Queue: 3 jobs
Job 1
Amino acid sequence: MDRSRPLRVLVWNQYFPPDTSATASLLMQFVRRAERDAVMVRTLQGNPSYRPAEAVRWKPWQLWRRTEQGLMVRSTTRGRDRLADRARNYVSFAALSSIVALFARGDVILVMTDPPIAVLGAVLVGKLRRKPVVYWLQDYHPEFMVGIGRLAPSAWVRAWSRLHQMALRRCERVIAIGRDMRDRLIEAGVAEDRIEVVANGSAVDWSMQLEPTTQPAGT
């Protein structure tokens, strides 16, 4: 990596202002702190669905548009009350953002858990573009959804869990928000030296957290 310029990070998450989700707020705090640490951040976000009045009208000939902070893909903005509608938003964002991310600039891909399947696309794009992927977990899926009763154990949930664990082991670094989550990651086969525990709101040096190591993940 060229160290004569700031580290460039592509932040991949469905929610970012003007959306008003918890991760949107968290990411805005991250952007402000990261830029103080000489990290250049560009976001890859979805069409606002927490604030659908600010959503961008879908146009089949235009997958994305530029924003002040990065790129916004034109994902669906169905209501969030029904799990099926939320899933449609997740799938449309995951698919469109995976295409756009193939061409977006960045030395490192930082992916979060909105939607829960985003890490699968990020790992694939990271492999194709030879870019390290840092996975910042907020919830451990799909086990979290099963635990709160939103999903019932099934064959496809077990398949999702296996895919998630496979993706985890191929990330350059995994950021957990607590020690219990770190222990769960170790059980899933993530190397302990690739896990960092960073509680939300912590004052950390993000230039150090996101700096790629010399050893590729997944080897």
Note: The mean pLDDT is 86.
Job 2
Amino acid sequence: MAKTLMLLPGDGIGPEVMVETRKIIEWANTRGADIKIKEGLVGGASYDAFGKPLSDETLKLCRECDAVLLGAVGGPKWNNVDYAVRPEAGLLRLRKELDLFANLRPAIVFDALIDASTLKPEIVKGLDILIVRELTGGVYFGEPRGIEDLGNGERRGFNTQTYTSSEIKRVGRVAFELARKRRGKVTSCEKANVMESGKLWREEITALHAEYKDVQLEHMYADNCAMQLLRNPSQFDVIVTDNLFGDILSDEAAMLTGSLGMLPSAALGAPGSPGLYEPVHGSAPDIAGQGKANPLATILSFAMCLRYSLGQPALADAIEEAVRSVLDKGTRTSDIMAKGSREVSTSQMGDALIAELKTAQAKAA
């Protein structure tokens, strides 16, 4: 059955990397994926066209699709526009309106890029961690919040960390289900020793574990997790945590790989609702239009889309293996260059990946 994918190229290098991802989508369709494409504007591109970073019409189209693939948003061009209509506001609205509560951030070390990590090769070799971050609750959205004047030149800033049982359970369920398809271990991170919200988090995750006895569960304080990610990251499989800690821990885990620009991400909602897939890197306006952008993070985001929203896990595996093979052969964009590697442009990297996919297909025939 046909699936519909909404493409939102966005700003900066977003359109360039999306062009290369389209090549991979076309390849997937030759392998039976049957993906129909729609395209819209988001971020600064949407602001320039409509005066808002996400139009109601584009949002409506996103809701009607099976998944959304986004390039990047933002850039200095829009630094002086009102906060409510900044390019990033379009992305935040999209996450909120689609109720995308579970952010999936993989941290994978490709053997060919192992020397790019700041950690010793023996520490990060073979690393494959998936962080599941709660995305719509916690201190970023809790009320009350604000800055108040206390008088005598003194001010107070305050935010509220709050979670309900249902918010914790739904993201915990995502983590347990994913762990079942991986190595069968979930590490739940909070600060139950000093925070009531952390205590509730631990209690609810523990109770939920009764439905997933085939998955190993361990609890870890978030600060200890930050230390363990540097000390012994291979102990982790799936990490599930709240919005604030997930924001911090996922960035730390990403840098274990040595290349933030290589990493994909996903934001998932309720079953049957469209997921949002996007590279972790930003819009990189300093290199936009120069053919230097690395398209692999967006292409790997599409692979996640195939796996989690479009029902094509075998094609996702094929794309990820092709990326690994291309890197092993020394093909690099400028951001991941190493001694002895061959530097290629954005479009050449896309072409190299297509060639690798076709070679692997021919060998398997």
Note: Residues 76 and 285 are 8 Å apart (CA to CA).
Job 3
Amino acid sequence: MNFPTLPGVFTASLTPLDSNLEPDLEALIDHAMSLMEEGSDGVALLGSTGEANSLTLEQRLKIIENVPGSLSPEHLMLGTGSCSLQDAVVLTKASMRSGVWTVLVLPPFYYRPQSDDGAFRYFSEIIESVGDEKLRVVFYNFPQLSGYSFSIEILLKLRERFGHTAAGIKDSSGNWKNMKRVVNEIPDFSVYAGTERFLLDVLREGGAGCVTATGNLTSPGCREVYRAWRAGDQEEADGAQERLTRQRLVLQNHPFVSGLKSLTGLKTGSSVWCNMLPPFVPLSDENAALFAREAAETGLDVPASG
């Protein structure tokens, strides 16, 4: 496959916040670095897990303008979607200026039902307003939150109109049949599963990899699967995927942002992970301890005592 974006495992990073609920840039840079050291091929900033839709435009721009320079821009993916078309354009242009050409864009998610014509207009306006052939748009398919599901027809239409700028999709729908169809029917299109549960499946079909929230904790396991697959060791890949799936199933049984921040705080010993924007609330001490024990039992690097 000639993927227009970096293949592999991307972690959809949490966003550390200070006591004033402002993004803690230094902590975010450190966290992104640790994720890549632990096994992530890349890091997606300002996605759903990063509380992007609860941040102001100025806060998102602050991250886009200051974080990539301390990391490897080619290993980053920035979330620039917004209900406001003009905000999405501003964020995407800022991403390009920062050297991050791959952006993850959620469709406008308030007015429902959405039409394919409306989605095509939205993405066309962004791409044409940015006007840079280096731009790579990864469409964020999360119908449970956005109320819109990308069909194969709209993806083909966008690809026909914009070529490799319409670069790929992060599919968080959980619909494996649809992911498989996109991989098989759109050549050289970066299909990322939205969960590591489908990592090995999507790789074997010819997809790019995954972009996963729980990679904040499962990066080492994701790396095991990806390396075994690339080495052609099918038995090892199957075993690694089975372990990884067990971890994912435990992690997804708790509120994503609250739960992942709780476990990341336990793992790092940093109080910065206790802070989160409404509507999220921290786990109770009892639930945090239970979650930590459950996670540790799957082999995750989390203190089991809670």
Note: Strands lie at 8-12, 42-45, 76-79, 102-105, 136-141, 166-171, 190-193, 209-212.
